[in-house]
Specification:
mainly alpha; about 70% helix; globular
């Protein structure tokens, strides 16, 4: 491969928000695994138990939405935690077709035991940044997580097809009117600006 092409590919990864978030997640998972050791919960198991504890009587669909874990992975996690006695499955009181997932006593004990490892992993990750950047990172991640909770249709409608594309004249006229009005905070723009500051 030519030198120039290799440099472009490498710079492309370093400039990719998706890649940087993925690498950061890998680091966070490594920190959690080191803090937890082999005898306690994985980060994903801890997440599922935390979600189940926060919303008693959640269905597996609810857990998929809250945790962000894909449906098949979550189904496997729940099945293994049911087998270990960490979770209980019950028929939903509100929907006869659905089952709810609740913590067992063993699950509550495991969640309490795993809280230290989760906190240590978070603290170790945040310690890599200055205090000001920690606040900024948490604000950015909160804004991005909030966007993930929005319905897909809403997210698609808000996403610009091409951020650098020229806006139609009608849009420019609306923008000129908006510029005269007091500006409201735009969480997406603020999150992008903050992310650039952290990175």
């Amino acid at each position: 491969m030519a030198k120039g092409k290799h440099k472009i590919a490498r710079d492309g990864l370093h400039g990719s928000v998706t890649h940087l978030l993925h690498r950061t997640l890998q680091l966070a998972l490594d920190f959690h695994a080191e803090a937890a050791g082999s005898a306690t919960l994985t980060q994903r198991q801890y997440t599922v138990l935390s979600a189940a504890a926060a919303g008693e009587g959640m269905t597996q669909n609810d857990l998929v939405r809250v945790t962000g874990i894909d449906r098949s992975t979550l189904a496997d996690l729940v099945a293994r935690m049911l087998a270990k006695g960490l979770l209980r499955r019950e028929r939903s009181a509100t929907d006869a077709r659905a089952n709810t997932v609740t913590l067992s006593e063993a699950g509550r004990d495991a969640l309490n035991s795993g809280a230290g490892a989760a906190a240590d992993a978070d603290a170790r990750l945040l310690a890599l940044l200055s205090p000001k950047k920690r606040e900024t990172l948490l604000k950015i991640l909160g804004a991005l997580a909030a966007a993930a909770d929005e319905p897909v249709k809403t997210r698609v409608a808000k996403s610009p097809a091409d951020p650098g594309a020229e806006k139609p004249a009608a849009t420019k006229t609306k923008k000129a009117k908006k510029d005269k009005e007091p500006k409201a905070a735009n969480p997406s723009k603020a999150a992008r600006a903050d992310l650039e500051t952290v990175l």
